[in-house]
Amino acid sequence: MNQYETVFILTPVLSDEQMKETVAKFKKLLTDNGAEILNEETWGLKKMAYAIQKKSTGFYCLLEFKAEPTMVKTLETGFRRDEKVIRYITVKLDKYAVEYAEKRRNKLAKKEEA
Predict the structure, then answer these.
(1) What is the mean pLDDT of residues 29-52?
(2) pTM, entire model
(3) What does each C-alpha distance from 93 to 3, 33, 65, 82 come to in angstroms?
(4) Among 58, 70, 98, 113, which one is most buried in terms of CB atoms within 10 A?
(5) d(Cα 68, Cα 31) in Å, to the nearest integer?
(6) Is 96 exposed, middle or buried (0-12, 13-18, 19+ CB in 10 A)?
(7) Is 100 a residue whose pLDDT tops 70?
(8) DSSP string, 8-73
(9) Does residue 114 register a pLDDT over 70?
(10) Closest-CA residue to 84 (of 15, 29, 30)
């Protein structure tokens, strides 16, 4: 199993509840197909560098997971079929990126405890 990180941008016209439901849908898609979710971050509504589909902002979400390589294709098909997703990118993490991601998670966990 490889470790992946996916960031996707949801359309800004969604309510908070709709945004959370959409993120939960993709998490369920991953777990139902045997992936292990390591980290989930919701970065919130952010301004984009350029307009996409005439929208200048979007809800940014990050999911870090371990899965088989075929799972990425299934996930990205789900992103393409969902009209709420306006952009996405999935990256396979090498050993250095995995170390960095673990440090980042630990740093965020310490920040939340304080």
Answers:
(1) 92
(2) 0.88
(3) 6, 20, 10, 25
(4) 58
(5) 12
(6) exposed
(7) yes
(8) EEE-TTS-HHHHHHHHHHHHHHHHHTT-EEEEEEEEEEEEEEEEETTEEEEEEEEEEEEE-HHHHH
(9) no
(10) 15
Length reported for the chain: 114
Tokens representing 110 are 């310490």
Q: What is the strand order of the sheet 85-92 is part of?
A: 36-52, 55-67, 2-10, 85-92
Q: Give the pair of three-digit tokens for residue 46.
A: 């952010």
Q: What is the mean pLDDT of residues 79-104?
A: 93
- Cα–Cα distance between 104 and 99 in angstroms, integer? 9
Radius of gyration of the CA atoms of the chain, in A: 14
Could you tell me if 2 and 75 are in contact, meaning their C-beta atoms sit under 8 angstroms apart? no
